[in-house]
Specification:
The chain is mainly alpha-helical. Among the domains are: about 5-115, no CATH class; about 200-259, no CATH class. The chain has helices at about 15-30, 35-45, 55-65, 70-85, 90-95, 100-105, 120-140, 145-150, 155, 160, 165-175, 195-200, 230-240, 250-259; strands at about 5, 10, 220-225, 225-230. Strand 3 (about 220-225) and strand 4 form a beta hairpin. It is elongated, with a radius of gyration of 44 Å.
Length: about 260
């Protein structure tokens, strides 16, 4: 069977199953019954098939179960286990051995099911057990029950109504308002404007100071109404207006800027 890894080592399911079968057989006294062969066959199903001495390993397991077996009986048990259909599922193995839920809890069996409580019911009981265990741990740490906490909460008691004020005013006076106002952004803007307003003020819309008029036009730029216009911007405007650039407009703008 596929082995599952766990923290601190390797989870060997067949080895754990063999130990649980031995504990259950010893607990119910299976060695003194006529059905002792069931526990032996189940043990052989979960034993390593590549073991050097399967008969000797089975005899040692029978001794741990509180019984004894001869070599011929051990050989016959091996042949019987090989001829039978294996019952390796948790609930099927429990029905094969007659494991009850009480025995499962007493012996701490985790890989064998039970005949009186199904798999889903065991899952529900396990979750309930874990929930009660965690609740006891919380109570030991001083945590109050949920009903008591909700009964004493501010949402239920509403102390602001006794003082004749609104809930927000009551929180504000205590300085514990759950929704504090977000402070406005003060950095990044000009003359008290927000950063978004500063970003939206494009350089093309900014007025050019008078001293810039005396500078040479770099890259084909010119001034129009105090606004610095580039050659690319002028060409785009002419194209949008349906005009053909013949050099006259550009010359006129340069002359007007020079004056």
């Amino acid at each position: 069977m596929k082995q599952k890894r766990r923290k601190g080592g390797v989870f060997n399911l067949p080895a754990i199953r063999r130990g649980e079968i031995e504990r259950h057989a010893l607990h119910v006294g299976a060695a003194d019954t006529e059905d002792f062969w069931r526990w032996l066959v189940a043990w052989v199903w979960h034993n390593d098939q590549n073991v050097r001495d399967p008969i000797g390993a089975l005899k040692l397991a029978v001794g741990r179960m509180g019984g004894s077996i001869t070599e011929a009986e051990a050989d016959a048990t091996l042949e019987r286990a090989e001829a039978m259909r294996q019952q390796r599922a948790a609930d099927r193995l429990a029905r094969f051995l007659g494991v009850t839920y009480v025995q499962r809890q007493q012996l701490g069996l985790t890989t064998i099911g039970s005949i009186d409580v199904g798999r889903r019911s065991r899952t529900v009981l396990r979750k309930r057990k874990n929930r009660l265990h965690n609740e006891r741990k919380r109570r030991a740490r001083g945590a109050s029950p949920r009903a008591e906490y909700e009964a004493n909460s501010l949402t239920r008691t509403k102390p602001w109504e006794a003082e004749g004020m609104s809930r927000r005013t009551w929180y504000r006076k205590r300085g514990t308002s759950p929704s504090a106002a977000i402070p406005p952004l003060k950095c990044g803007g000009t003359n008290g404007t927000s950063p978004s307003a500063a970003i939206l003020s494009l350089a093309a819309d900014t007025s050019v100071p008078p001293e810039r008029k005396q500078e040479d036009f770099r890259g084909g730029a010119c001034l129009e109404g105090g606004i610095l216009l580039t050659r690319r911007w002028i060409a785009a405007r002419e194209k949008a207006c349906g005009l053909r650039h013949n050099g006259l407009l550009w010359t006129y703008l340069r002359q007007e800027a020079a004056e």
